[in-house]
Amino acid sequence: MNGRALLSGALVATASMVGRPAQAQVSVEAQIGARQLEVGDSTQFQITALSSTDDPPTNPHLPPVPGLDIQGPSLGSRTQVSINNGRMVQQRGISATWTIRALKVGTYRVGPASIEVGGRRSQTNVATLEVVPQGSLPRGRQPFDPFRFFDPFGSGSPFPPGLLGPNGMEEEREPPVPEEFRLERAPDPIAFLRATVTPKHPVVGEQVTVKLYMYGGRGPYNGTNLVDFTHADFLDYSGKDDGDANETARVPIGDTVFLARKVRELALFPLHAGRLVIGPASLTFTEGRYRSNPPITRSTSPLVIDVSEPPLDGRPAGYRLGDVGTLELSAAVDPRKITAGDSVGVVAKLEGTGSIPTVLRVPEQRGVEWQDPTRVDEVAADKGTVRGFRAFNFVVKLKEPGSIDLGELKLPYWDPKRRAYAVARASLGKIEVTPSLAPQPAASAPGKLASAADPLAQKPRRVLGAFAEEPAPFTDGLRFWLLILGAPLAVALGGLGREVGGRIQRSRSRSLSSPERLAQDALRAADTAARGSEIAKTAAAIERALFLAIEAGTGIRARALLKSDLKAALVEAGVGSDAIERTLLLLDACESARFTGKAGEHPPKELVSRARGVVAELARKRMRA
Amino acid sequence: MRALRRCARWTRVAALVGFALLAGGGDAHADSPLRSAPEFALAVKAIDDGAFGEAIDQLELLADRGFVHPDASFDRAVAYLGRARSPQRQPGDLGRAAAALAETLALRPDDREAQSTLDAVRQELGRTRARTGGAPLVARPRLVRALVGLLPESAWGVLAALGSLSLAWGLALRLLVRRTSTEVPGALGIGVGGLLLCLGGGLAAGARHFRRTSTLAVVVVPEARLLDESGRPLPMRPNGEASVAPEGSEMYVTERRGGLDRVEWGATDGWVVAGQVREVEQR
Known about the structure:
Chain A has helices spanning 169-172, 444-453, 478-512, 515-531, 535-554, 563-572, 577-596, 604-624; strands spanning 26-32, 36-38, 42-51, 58-61, 68-84, 87-102, 106-110, 114-117, 120-123, 127-132, 191-198, 208-216, 222-227, 234-236, 248-253, 256-270, 274-278, 282-286, 296-299, 303-307, 326-334, 337-339, 343-353, 368-370, 374-382, 385-398, 402-405, 408-415, 420-427, 430-434. Chain A is of the alpha+beta class. Chain B has 9 helices and 7 strands, in the order αααααααααβββββββ. Chain B has 3 domains: 36-133, Serine Threonine Protein Phosphatase 5, Tetratricopeptide repeat (Alpha Horseshoe), CATH 1.25.40.10; 147-213; 214-283, SH3 type barrels, CATH 2.30.30. By secondary structure, chain B is an alpha+beta fold. Chains A and B meet through α3 of A and α1, α2, α3, α4 and α6 of B.
């Protein structure tokens, strides 16, 4: 019989009662990983000590054994809660693990290990370890070691040999690449980091697992200077850096075989809805062919996660945002018969997966007074999933006699696997409360009076009164603003338009009867008459055009003046002497033609042409003025 | 005289058009039929039984589902007040009661019982603050918000409409009628109307802006520390006090970003953790 058998390797050593008065209970348990070892091999020896007192176990000790190299111990903490007969028993303690390496052939007695509790030492039994020469144990097998989690049988597999196929076949093959390491394309041929998030669209309070993997394409490496993910919007249940504990896998990607390792695994719980960001992580590759200056440092991109709230449809009353997981609730009440005014103990245990809620709503009722609970928590990430329990220890005081139904404890939660709400329930049952023999305090009547005068002691409204939701105020719409600003603006624009229109009309009528315009009309009439060789008509039109041009240019009404006076008036008006001369000559010629009916020395067309020049010159005079 | 009569006729027409436009300006809201809620009855029974936590669960669920009613808000306040006085009291219960009462008053402003209870809750919170020497419950509001709050938004709107009408009438007299006898009334209309339009229109626009961009909220934790945009606490005030809004104090939420709400508390701007304040449903 060697150490292969699962149970034979474990040694339950001692469960001792330390002789302290009252409830000083200590249990010490020891295990050894193997009973047979080859020289040079190692196994582990572990003791677990739990105490129900306030004094935690300390100072574990394993005496040295000649022929064995004993290293350690490494310490861990332990908490255990159990409910027995309605009472919660909580034990705290430590585990201490030593690594034992066989140096010489022989049979050795390991222990007794001891541990100190409250000033006294408790001992375990002695374990026996047989060390045999190298090669004595079956080839390819290592002694069973329950502490080597991924390879307890020493065959590179967590399963016993032969379970998955014929012996010997697996050793020749390349071990399969774990699914989580597989990649189709390497973003960097030398080294890179990869971060994954599951699930991608969680609800508030649902566990989000973030994993960080490092891949090296140049052979073995070491990862240092880890800058971890930042996650301010998440509750973190992750342990410390566990990268060294993970094994390295050979992952062929393209033509390169990368050595991949999981560096971090975070168990996070989003605290609110929205697009939450997990900051980047970075790591430096060192050792082997990764030595370089500057060092090979890689980082991930920020991870963005869309977090929503569980749906409103079907949400049970009392659901608190963030209560997500798979939960079970159990409760125990003790005692069941009491006297009025006494208390019972209620121990409720909420266990399951997820971030276990820290608050439990109690079934309140008049005459039953629930005190704040004391709580024991044991929630941690285990194999990637956060699980555990929270135990609530209530003291409930019952004031009124009778058979009191305490009701039930319930906790609504969102089950992410079923995508539905569920309610964890635990019925508390009835308590028989006998009347108290002690006289009742006569404080009820004054209490009522006090509550009647207390403005904070209000009675609820039993019916929903009439209530109409008011529409938005009229100032909300655009029309209101258009109206109050548009009305005066419209009036102002109307007045302005009216003024401008009047001015345009007046200006137009003025321009239609202006001497300039009439002079031009007369010139056009003269031109027409000249073409028809109507001498008198031409002369009359030219004469009219000249008088109008003089009026337009100088303001002088020439028709009312004698020619001698006209010349003086034109001179006084500043008309050039040449223009005056030509004007007077033209007037004379026109007068002559008008009376004789014959063209003199100037034909009608020439008269018209001359008249056009004089009119233009007089018009320039007007413009200069 | 004919000109005056014509002007009066136009004024009447303008008033009728304005009234028609104003009447059609808002959405028509008929009285919605009262929605019965079984959760409300369960909550009332739970309060009677002293199960305030259960009543709160039912009424909060109603609120989450969008059920808005002043009596439901009042009963929620009663449930929180009941729990605040029981061994199951939770930090912030009085603040949540104050928020529920503020909501009752926002939905039904003439609710005297809610007003007196809210005053009592504030007095209780004030006493607690006085014992601990914390900041006062009421912060002095900004001048603009105080001015805007002197009258309801619709009152400012009516003032602006009257100003607009008077201004239009005065302009019509001055620009369209142009008679010596209308000069003084026209100038008076322009002056008074312009003043009323500027005052009423400006404050109505301010009230509209505040209503559309900010929401009344109440602090529902013992103390809400004001933060900057990155989540760091704001520096101490000039008088040496920390920028901490006490439970039950009212503030205005102007923006939500991630887990933070941007708030205006008195004359102080800052950010608070979203769960520390409860927004009040408005009509």
